[in-house]
Amino acid sequence: MILDSCHAALPALAYTPPASAQAATLTTRYITQLNLALDVPAEWRPGASLERPNRWYYTDDLGGLVLELEPFNTPNSIEQACLEVAEQAGFPSFDIDFYPPEQGRCVALPLSGSSTEARAVLRLPEGVVRGGARYNALRLSGSAALLPEILGSARFYNPDEMTAPQVVAASLDLLQGEYLFSSFVTWADVRRLALDGLTDEDSIGTAYERLDAALQLVGLQGRDNHSQLFRPGVGALSMPLVGLGARYLRDGTVILVYPGSAAEAGGLRVGDRIDAINGVRLFTLQARIDAGFPSGIGVPYVVEVWRNGSQTTLIVEGGGYTDLLPPVINRLPGGMVYIETFGTYGEGVSTDDYNAYLTDAHDRLAQASAGACGYILDVRRNLGGVAFPVLLPMMPLVGDEMFGTAFRPEGNAIFFGRYEAATATISGGAITGSSRLRPARPAVIDTTRPVAVLTSNATASMGEYSAIMLLGDPNRPVRIFGQPTAGLLSFLGFYGLPGGGSMWIARTLLTDRSGTTYINGLTPQQLIAVDWTRYAQPSDPVLNAAQSWLRTQGC
User: Fold this and answer.
1) What is the three-class DSSP state of 367?
2) Where are the alpha helices (DSSP H) in 369-449?
3) Quick count: other Cβ atoms within 10 Å of Cβ 445?
4) Per-residue pLDDT tens for 490-545?
């Protein structure tokens, strides 16, 4: 029989935990997605929401689950909700402690001998959206010895009113929980670096300087530099000419000039090597940008470049451009089809614009593929970005396949991805396709034809994954030509941070369809240096090598 010995409104922390619980060293942990702070034992570690979808949890030093928080919807009072969660937990007998009504919380404690676990309910101050659903309450599951005290410590906060140490602590809690290689990081060292000497009087700008240093240490220890910090009011740290329509390598070599951009109008060319901008040498300017400071370089840009062994000065004015470049699709002699795809952030691009772009790409691919003997996929200038606009133009090469997995090494959570050629949608837990993004007429091609993939050291993220998805197919020869890729084969999650900033966090490691990982990037079977001055020209050595191989495959 279920016993419900409900008390009248009891003061917070009315339950007295045993001495062992009282002796625990508590520390404040933050759940930024809920703007919720809790005091929990210092040795507890935040876990990844990916492994327990739509939930937050903490583990102990042995990796055991010690506290779980799950949003849910209830039309009932807190009292009734607490009764329900106790019954759902299967407690044969329990006692319910109610906190003051304005706190909107209660805890169901099993009576002696029935269970060591307790359940609690906390009313959310406003609906929380998770997975497309809205929730008004939070279910807590944990030790009967500690849960009442943890529940009593719960408080919701205004992220805009947090102090610098609170902003840093909350952001690090999020990073520790979600980061793919969290188990490789010495978080005590990271927290010391970020928090020692930081005071309530310090500015939010100082807090983000500390976070930037902490993220660099996390990247070094985790052997991953894909995660990125976005400072309040600054956004992503980008190279100065990106906004004018050009991308270049860290040594200044220009690899892409966007059509119709100010960079194109100013005469910048692929293969140019930028030496200085407005008199500031490139390495000095890049150091400023990496530190998150504005470049201090005004428009017009006086750009000094090396071209064909001599120095040339260009004047580049300001101006807008779009980074959503349509893929290059050409039919080459001998029945080969050349496809070049580009990365994009797609800012300001509507769903209708995306779908028109995808429809055009698939129409051209279908037309070029008639009777094709093989394909060349060129991702040498594909730096990644928003997944679906990057992937969907080339997905007909994948066909109806489980093309890869995503997992976290410590949790071994595996999610598969599948491409459905007839509808041009990507489904599965690794990357869930958006039903709004699809071409009007999906291209369906012969996926047994050989594919040559061209890569460079600029190929990154979704650019790399474009190649990865083609690997491990026993029904088709695939060969990679060019240079090793950037090694950013992780899938990012985007999170808002207190203080107005945000962060991309590497959450899962992407693999090919056989489950093979490429932590250090792809190494081509045929290593060839990319000569950007001959890029896509008849003398392009990488392109020529790919064509020669396709001829041995029947082209």
Assistant:
1) helix
2) 387-391
3) 19
4) 888 889 999 999 999 998 888 888 888 888 899 999 999 999 999 999 999 999 99
Phi, psi of 217, deg, nearest 5? -65, -40
Residue 58 contacts residue 26 (beta carbons within 8 Å): no
Amino acid at 4: D
How are strands ordered across the β-sheet holding 273-277?
Answer: 280-281, 273-277, 301-307, 310-316
Closest CA to 531 of 456, 469, 470, 474: 456
Burial class (CB in 10 A: 0-12, 13-18, 19+), 69: buried
Residues 6+ apart with CB under 8 A from 161: none
Q: Are 392 and 427 in contact (CB under 8 A)?
A: no
What are the pLDDT digits (tens) for 44-67?
Answer: 999 888 777 788 999 988 778 899
Helix (H) or strand (E) holding 296: none
Give Cα 358 to chain centroid, integer Å. Answer: 23
- Is the Cα torsion angle 13, 18, 19, 20 positive or negative in sign? negative
Matching CATH number, 1-157, of 3.40.1000, 3.40.1700, 3.40.1350, 3.40.710: 3.40.1000
Q: How many CB atoms lie within 10 A of CB 190?
A: 20
Confirm if 380 and 453 have CB atoms less than 8 A apart. no
Structure token pair of residue 477: 């020869």
Fold of 242-316: Pdz3 Domain (2.30.42)
User: Which range is most confident: 10-14, 143-147, 295-299, 318-322?
Assistant: 143-147
Torsion angle (degrees, nearest 10) of CA 208, 211, 216, 222: -150
Element (H, E) at 339: strand 336-340
What is the spatial distance between Cα 439 and Cα 436, in angstroms, rounded to a whole number?
10
Cis peptide bond upstream of 41, omega within 30: no
Predicted confidence band of residue 142 (pLDDT cuts 50, 70, 90): very high
Residues of the chain by 3-state class (helix, strand, coil), percent to 5: 25, 30, 45
Q: How many CB atoms lie within 10 A of CB 160?
A: 9
Got the DSSP string for 172-227?
Answer: HHHHHHH-TTGGGS-HHHHHHHHHTT--TTS-HHHHHHHHHHHHHHHHHHHT----
Interacting residues of 79 by C-beta distance below 8 A, sequence separation 6+: 6, 96, 98, 106
Burial track 261-276 (b if 16+ CB lie within 10 A, e otherwise): bbbbebbbbbbbbbbb
Contact 467, 341 (CB under 8 A): no
Rounded-to-integer distance, Cα 435 and Cα 24, Å: 49
- CATH of the structural domain 328-552, one choice from 1.10.3720.10, 3.40.50.2300, 3.90.226.10, 2.40.50.1020: 3.90.226.10
> What is the phi-psi region of residue 113: left when phi exceeds 0, alpha when psi lies from -120 to 50, beta otherwise?
left
